Amino acid sequence: MTNRRNILKGVAAAGALGTFGAGYAETVQKLAKGKWSGKKPRDEHVVGNSIPAEFTIDPETGDVTLNPDQAMSYTMCIGCTTMCGVRVRVDKKANKVLRVAGNPYSPMSTDPFIPYESSVAESFAAMAQAGPGQGLTRRSTACGRGNAVLEQVDNPRRVLKPLKRVGPRGSGKWETISFEQLVEEVVEGGDLFGEGSVAGLREIRDLETPAVEGAPEFGPRANRLVWMNCVDDGRDNFVLRWLKQSFGSNNFTRHGSYCGGAYRSGSGAMFGDFKAMPHAKPDFSNAEFIIFAGTAPGNAGNPFKRIGNLVAKARSDGNLNYVVVDPVLNNAQNGPSGERARWVPIKPGTDGAMAMAMIRWMFENERFNATYLANPSKAAADATGETSWSNATHLVITDQDHPRYGHCLRGSDMGLTIEGEAYSDADPYMVISETGPVAAGASPAPLFHAGEAETPNGAVNIKTALTLLREEAMSREMSDYAEDCGIPIEKLVELAREFTSHGRKAAVSSHGGMMNGSGFYNAYALMMLNTLIGNLNWKGGTMIAGGGFSETKGPAYDLVNFPGKVKAKGLPFGRNVPYEKTTEFKTKKAAGAPYPADAPWYPNAPGLATEWMSSLVNGYPYGAEALIFRNTNPIYGIPGVAHLLDKLKDPAVVPLIISIDPFINESTAISDYIVPDSVMYETWGFTKPWGGVATKATCARWPVIEPKMAQNAEGQRVGLETFLIGVAKRMGLPGFGDEAIPDAQGKLHPLNRAEDWYLRGAVNVAMTGEPVSDATDEDIELSNVARILDDMKATLKPEEWRKAATIFAKGGRYENIERSYQGDKATYAFNPPMLVWNEGLGSFRRATTGTHLPGTPAWRAPEFSDGSKVHDHYPREDWPVQVVSFKSPLQNSYSVGAKSLLRIVASNPVNVGRDLAQAHGIKTGDMVRLTTPGGTLESVAVVRDGVAPDTVAIEHGFGHRGFGAQDITIDGTTMPADPRLAAGVLLNDLGMLDPTRGKAGVWVDPVSGTAVRHGLPARIERI
Amino acid sequence: MDTTRRGFLGAIGQVTIGAAASVAGASQSAEAAEESHVPHWGMVVDLRKCIGCQACTVACIMENAVPEDAFRTHVSVYELVKDGQDPAMVMLPRLCNHCDDPPCLPVCPVEATFKAENGEVLVDASKCVGCAYCVQACPYDARFINHETQVADKCTFCFHRTQHGLLPACVETCVGGARNFGDLNDPDSEVSIMLRENEVSVLRPEMHTNPNVYYIGLDDVLDGRVAGDSAYHPEMTGQAHAHGEGL
Amino acid sequence: METQVQELVGAVHDAAWQPWAVQYFFLIAISVTALLMALPAFVFGRHTDLRAARLALMVAVTTGITAPIALLADLHQPFRFWEFFVYTHKSSWMAWGAWIVPSYVVLMLLFAWSLHRPEFYRMGQDDWRFAWLFRLFSLGGAANGFARPLGMLAGVAALGILTYTGMEVMVVRARPLWNTPFLPLQFAATGVVGALGVMLVLERLLNRDAGLEATINRRLAIALATVGALGVAWFAVALSGISPVHSEALASVAGFSVWKQIALWGAASIAIPFVLALTLPQSTGWITGLIAIHAAWMFRWTVFMGGQAVPKVGSGLYDALMPSGLGGLMGVIGTFGLWVFLMIVYTTFLPWTDATPPASGQSFGQTQSKPARTQEI
Ligand SMILES: Nc1nc2c(c(=O)[nH]1)N[C@H]1C(S)=C(S)[C@@H](COP(=O)(O)OP(=O)(O)OC[C@H]3O[C@@H](n4cnc5c(=O)[nH]c(N)nc54)[C@H](O)[C@@H]3O)O[C@H]1N2
Ligand SMILES: Nc1nc2c(c(=O)[nH]1)N[C@H]1C(S)=C(S)[C@@H](COP(=O)(O)OP(=O)(O)OC[C@H]3O[C@@H](n4cnc5c(=O)[nH]c(N)nc54)[C@H](O)[C@@H]3O)O[C@H]1N2
Ligand code: SF4
Ligand code: SF4
Ligand code: SF4
Ligand code: SF4
Ligand code: SF4
Ligand SMILES: [Mo]
C-alpha cells in the first residue's frame, strides 16, 4: 500500500482529519472541561452569576438582615449633570461597586421620597418588595446611564497617575510622572517640554502687575490663569476658594454657555438676574397643561429622572396633558398616552415666532391674566393674594436719543425726592395714573399706556412694559409667525387657547433647544408666556427650586473666609460685561468711533466658556498664560470649536494647559499635564438640584470605595484637592495648611486634605436651621459610613461627628416633601418681579454694532455679530437644510466608556425626515453627507416621520475622538483605539465660525453669547 | 392557579384580556385564600409610563452578569405612524413572560427548564445540556445561550432577589414606574389592582402561552413580530471582545 | 396608508443553533435516506440494483457516523450528552431523538457490518499484513443471515430519524418557517436528493459507469420532482390562505429581497439538475450530483439559519444567514473533513464493492474475485 495513489490518499485523509480537528477543537475542549464546558457560574442551579442579594427583608416583620459581603451606601451619581442621590452596592472585599439603585430620601431618584427621619433600615425596607407599598411606591432609581457608569471606575483607559505630554500637544503620547514632579513643574515652570521657557503658576500669580498694560480694568496678572470647569459637581467651592480667594484669579467659568445658556439667559431676563439666571420649572405633578419647547422630558432634561418620572406619572395617573414642541420626535413623547402627550414639529430656532404668535393671540383675545399683571409691586401682589408680580405696568423711556433710553422711568427721573441714590432700590418705579406717572404703590396700575411724561428735564416718551410687549407681538401678522416657525395658524391658536384655559395650572418649559442663533429672545418669549398667565409660585404652575443647605457657610465652620484671603478682581476673560467699561471703549470714543469693539461683549450674560475659546486663541481681551480644564470638555462640546483647535494647541498661544480629569477626553487630550482625578463614588462633594425640586435638598457624595488614583509621597490619593493643596503649599498660598478653616468661635482648623474640608462641610449642612438628628450605630453600620468613621471622629468635634454621619448615612439632607407647598403656593417663592421689559437688555448697545435690541421678548431671525442676518450669508437656496442636535436618552457627553450602554445603542445614525429623504432619494441605511459652512460629516441615515421638514437631527454623545477612540500611548506602551468608542458622528463637527468676526470665534447668540448647535444651515446628499 | 381559565380567556384576544385578567385574578384569590398562600409573580408594564431610559436593561445586565452579546430584558423603541395620525413614540420593555404555558418547557430534553413554585420559569444550569431547543421554542426571543456559562439563560424574575423580599432589579430601578411586580394571587397587590383597573394585553396572545407579563397601552401592531425596518446596528457590535482591552 | 413602524432601538439575537446543527440535519438525512435506498437490494433482494445500493450503503455509513458528531458539537455542554439518557422528557422530540439516533447508528452499522462480514472473513483468511484485523472484524465467522432483520430494524430506525428530525423542527411554533406540516416531508425528500447527489459523485469517482450514472440520475430526477412538487404545494397552500401556519410562514419572510433571492436560487437548484438529469442522464452525474448536494444542504441552511434570522418579536431580519465568524465556518468545513476522512478510510480499507445481500444460495466461494485491497479506485 505504498504506491503514489495511496500516499496521496494518506495525505488527503490526514488533511481531512486535520480540518475536522480544527472545526471541532472547541467541542473537544468543551468535552475535556467536563461538566462545565463554560465558566461555572456562582450558583450552579438557577441564578447563575447574579449578584447575591444585598439584604434579606422578612415579609412578616420587615426586619432587614444585611449580606455581610456587601456594603450599601448612599452617595451621588455623576453619570450626567443631574447628579442624583443613589445607593451603591459595594463588594467590600473587591472594593468594587456592583450595582446602583436610587436613594429613597432623594427627590432626584424617588417620588414621593421618604421622610428624612426614616432610619437607614427603614429606607432599605422602603424599596423592598416585602416592605411598605410592595416597594413600588417608594422605589428609587438610577437611569440607564446611572446603572452603567460604575463601569467608568474600572475603565481601562482611566488616568491613574499624573501624566505629562511627550511630543506636541494632542499627539496622544504621554509619560507618567510623580505627583511631586507635577507640582514642582507647574509651580516653578521653566523649559518643561524642551520648547522654551514656560511661566509657572508662581510667576503668574502676580497680584501687582496688571494683566494688561494700560488697562487696569482687567486686574492683575494672576488673572492670566484661567479655569474652565464643567458643572458644579459639588467641589467647585473648593476650587473657587483656591482660585479666587487664594491664588487671586478672577477667571473661572463653567460650561453653561454651551449647555443651555441661551435658555438660562432668556429666563434670567425675565427673572431680572443675568448672572445667576434663575429659572423655574413646571410643577409637573399638578399642572394640567405643559408646553415643552426645547426641552425633552424623559429624553433628557435636568433633573433627568425626576422629570421623566413625574411626567410619566402625571400623563398616566394624573391630569397632565402636554405638548412637546421640537424639530425631532424623541422619548419625550409617548404614543400609548394618546392625546395626553403630543408632538408639534417646529422649524429649528423659531420658538420666538411661535411664542410671539401665542402672545399676540393672547393680547387680541384678552387671554392674559390682567389682574395679576396689574400689580406693580410686591405689596400690591400681597394685597391681592398673588405670590409674585411683574413690571408689566412700569413705564419705560422710549425716546431713542434720551440718555436713559430703554430704562424704566423712576422717581428721580420725575424729580421726586427719594431717600437713597437715584436708580437705587429706593428710587421708585413709575406707573401711569390719571394724573400722569406716579410711584408704583400697593394697588393695581393700568396695563397699557403710551404717551409723554413731563420731567424736570423736559418731556419724554413713555410706554408701559406691557404696551411694549404688545407692540412687539403685534408687529407681525399671525401668518408671518406661522410661516417662520412652520406651525400652522390654527395650531398656534389651539396652543394659545389651551395654554390659557387652565388658569394657573399651565406652564411652558424649555432648555437645550434654545441653543440656536435666536435662542435668547426665543427663550425670553417662551418664558413670558408663564408670566402672562401669572403661574409663578403656584401649585400646578411654575416653581423655582427649593435650593439646598450650604456646606460652606453654616453655623459650624466658615469655609469661605480665612486669614490672608485675597479678593480677585478685574473684568472677566469672557467679555460678559459692558464694553463701555473698557479702556478700549474710552480710547475709541475719544477717537470719535467707540463702536465697533474688536470683538463682541455680552453685558447681559454670565461667564461664557464659549467666548473664552475665542479669547484664548486671540489673546483678546488678553492672553492666558495658563489654562486649567477641570472635568470639562469644551473641545467636544462646543459646535465649531474645531476651527480654533490648531491655535489652542500652539504653546505659543496658551503656554501651559493643565487638566484635572480621570479621562483623556477631547480637551484633556490637548493639555500639557493631566492630574488624575476620582470617579464619582470615590470622591466628595455637595450639590443641590438645579431645578424642579420644590424643597431644599443637598446631596452628599463621599468615597464609598477606596479611590484608584496613585498616591503621593504622603500617601494621599492624587486628585483635584490633593493637587490644589499641594500647589498651594508649595507656593505658600493663604487658606491652606494647618490654620485655614475658622469655626464659629474663630478657632482655626487645618486644611491639609480633602477630608478636612468636606467633613466640616457636612457639619455645616447638618447644623443649618434645625440640626439633623444623630446617626445611630445602626445607621452607621447599614450605610457603611463606618468606612469613614475614624476619619470623622478624628477630624470633627465630639458633638459633631454623629451629625455629619447622618448626612453621609442618608446621602445628604432633604427637607420633607410636605414642605413643597403652603396651601396652593410654593413654599420657596421667588420674590423679585418678573420683567416684561428688561432695562439692562433694552438699554445696552451691542459692542459690535453700537445698536440697541428690544427689552421685551421678540422674534428675530438669527444674526451674526455684525448684525447681518445669517440667511443673508448662507441663503436658503444654497443651504436648504437645517441640522439640530438632541440629547441621547442613554448617553451623555462622557459616558461612552461605560460599555454596557454601547451594547444597547452602538451609534447615532442621522435622522432624516421622510419628505427630505424622498427628495434626495435617501432610504434608511443609506450613507449621507451633511455639509454646513463649518464642516462636513458622513453617516448612516434613518428615515423617520418624526423630524420636522427640511431638518436633520443628530443624537449627541457619539463621534468621540477622546476616551480611547484614538490610540493612547503612555510610557511607550500604546493602548489601541477602540472603534466602538469612536462610533457615530458629532454634530459639533459641523459647527461654524461667525464669518463677520475679525477675531475668530464660533457662531453664538448675539445677546447671551451662547453656542449655536441647532439650526445650522446645511446641505444633504446621498453618497 | 387556574391556568386553564386564564388560557381560555387569554385566547379570546387582547381587547378582552383585561377583563379576563380581572376575572381570573378574582377567582384565583378566592382559591388562594383557602390554602396557605403561595404567591404567583407577575409583572404589569404600563407603557404610558415608560420613557425608554433603558435603566431596566442595564440594571438587569449588572445584576445578573448578562454577557455582552445578549439581553435578559431590553426596551425596544419605535416610531409609529398610524393612519393619518401624527407619528408617536412607543417604548416597549421586553422580557421573559414566565408563561403559564411556556413553549420553552416541554421541548427541553432533559427537564432542565422548569416552572418554579411562584410561577417563575427557570433553567437548572447544572442540568442544561445547552441544546438551545428552548431558545427556538420561546415565541418571544426571551432566551439565549449564555456564552460564558454555555447554558440556556433568561430572565429569572430575579429569583435570587424575590427570595429575599426584594424587587427584581429592573423593577426597582424603573425610572418611569412602568414596570410593576408583585403577587397575582393576592387580590390586594398593586399588580392585581392594576390588572383590575386597566385594560391590559399580552404579547403574542395567539401563541396561548398565558404570559405573566401584562401590558397597559400596548398597540396591537406591536404585540407580535413588528413590521418595518430594524434599528441601525453598526457592523462592529460583533467584536465584543476588543472593548476594554488594552493596557 | 397603513401603520408604519421604524424601530429605533432594538436588540439583535444570535442564532442559537449553529452551523453544526445544519450539518447534522444534512448528514443524518442523507444517511437515513441512503440507507433506505440500500434496503431494496440488500434486504429485499433486488440484485439488479446492487451497485447503486453499495454506493448508498457507503454513503449511509459515512454520513451516519459523521452526523451525530456534528450534533454533539452543537450542544453547548457536549459532556452532558449522557443526561439525555438519564432524564427523558417525554414531551420533547429531542429527548426521543436522543434514543433514536444511537439506535439508528448502531443498527445501521451492524447492518453494514453484517453485509461485509463474509468478505471480512475471507480477507481474514488471506495471507497478508492486515489479515489479523479482518479476522477481528469478522468476529470469527462469515454467516450473515441476520443482515436482513438487521436491515429492517435499521430501516425502521431510519424512519424514526426522519420522523423525529422532522417533528422536532416542525413543532416549533415560534418559528413559522419551521412550523408547517410540509417540513418533515421536505426534509425527507431533500435528504433523498442529497443522498443521490453524493452517490452520483461517488459513482463518478469510484465506478465511472455510465449506466449506473444514468440510473442514479433518473432517480435523482424523481426526487427533485418530488421536492419541487412539495415546494410548489407549499407556496400554493401558503398563498391560498387555507392553512394559517403556512401563510404565516410565507409572510414571515415575504417582502425581504434576500428571501426572494433565496427562493429563486432554490428553484434553480432544483430545476437545473432536474432538467439535466432527465435529458442527459449519462453524462451529467458530476454536475447534477454536486448541485443536488448543494440543494439539500442549502435547504437546511436556509431553514435553520434563515429561520433563525427571522425575529420573533423584533423588526427586520437578524444577521444569521451568513455564517458568523471563522468558528461557524470551520464547523461546516470540519464536518466535511470528517466525512471525507471516513470516505477515504472506507474506500481504502473496506471491501465495499463486495457488500452483498445474504442470499441463501451465496457461499464464500462465490465472492468476487478481485480482493478489495487491490480495488482500483
Ligand atoms: N439622557 C440625558 N439626559 C441628560 C443629559 C444627557 O446628556 N443625556 N444631559 C443633561 C444636561 S447637561 C442638560 S443641559 C439637560 C438638557 O436637557 P434638554 O434641554 O431636555 O435636552 P436637549 O437635547 O439639549 O434639548 C432639548 C430638545 O430641544 C430640541 N430642539 C433643538 N432645536 C430646537 C428648537 O429650535 N426649538 C425647539 N422647540 N426645540 C429644539 C432638541 O431636538 C431636543 O429634543 O439634560 C441633562 N440630562
Ligand atoms: N452638539 C451638541 N453639543 C453639546 C450638547 C448637545 O446636546 N449637542 N450638549 C451640551 C451640554 S447641555 C453640555 S452640559 C455640554 C457638556 O460639556 P462639558 O461640560 O464641557 O463636558 P463633559 O463631557 O460633561 O465634561 C465632563 C468631563 O468630566 C470627566 N468626568 C466624567 N466622569 C467623571 C467623574 O466621575 N469624576 C471626574 N472628576 N470627572 C469625570 C470626563 O472627562 C468628562 O469629559 O456639552 C454641550 N455640547
Ligand atoms: S440622571 Fe442618571 S446618569 Fe444622571 S445623575 Fe441621575 S442616575 Fe446618574
Ligand atoms: S417567554 Fe419564552 S422563555 Fe419565557 S416562559 Fe414564555 S416561552 Fe419560556
Ligand atoms: S438549552 Fe438547556 S434548558 Fe434549553 S432545552 Fe436545552 S437543555 Fe433544556
Ligand atoms: S426580573 Fe430580573 S432577570 Fe428579569 S428582566 Fe428584570 S432584572 Fe432581568
Ligand atoms: S426603566 Fe422603566 S421607564 Fe426606563 S425603559 Fe425600563 S421600563 Fe421604561
Ligand atoms: Mo447641559
TrEMBL record, chain A:
PANTHER family: TETRATHIONATE REDUCTASE SUBUNIT A, TRIMETHYLAMINE-N-OXIDE REDUCTASE. Transmembrane segments: none annotated. The keyword Oxidoreductase applies. It comes from Celeribacter halophilus. PROSITE patterns: 4FE4S_MOW_BIS_MGD, TAT. Residues 70-157 form the 4Fe-4S Mo/W bis-MGD-type domain. This is Tetrathionate reductase subunit A. InterPro entries: Asp_de-COase-like_dom_sf, MopB_CT_Tetrathionate, MoPterin_dinucl-bd_dom, Mopterin_OxRdtase_4Fe-4S_dom, Prok_Mopterin_Oxidored, TAT_signal, Tetrathionate-R_A_N. SUPFAM superfamilies: ADC-like, Formate dehydrogenase/DMSO reductase, domains 1-3.
From TrEMBL, chain B:
Keywords: 4Fe-4S, Iron, Iron-sulfur, Metal-binding. The keyword Glycosyltransferase does not apply. It holds the Pfam family Fer4_11. GO terms for molecular function: 4 iron, 4 sulfur cluster binding; metal ion binding. It comes from Celeribacter halophilus. The keyword Transmembrane does not apply. PROSITE patterns: 4FE4S_FER_1, 4FE4S_FER_2, TAT. This is Tetrathionate reductase subunit B.
From TrEMBL, chain C:
The chain crosses the membrane at residues 20-43, 55-73, 93-115, 136-162, 182-202, 222-242, 262-280, 287-306, 326-346. It comes from the Bacteria. It is found in: Cell membrane. One of its GO terms (cellular component) is plasma membrane. Keywords: Cell membrane, Membrane, Transmembrane, Transmembrane helix. The keyword NAD does not apply. It is a multi-pass membrane protein. InterPro entries: Electron_transfer_protein, NrfD-like. Belongs to the NrfD family. PANTHER family: PROTEIN NRFD. This is Tetrathionate reductase subunit C. It comes from Celeribacter halophilus.
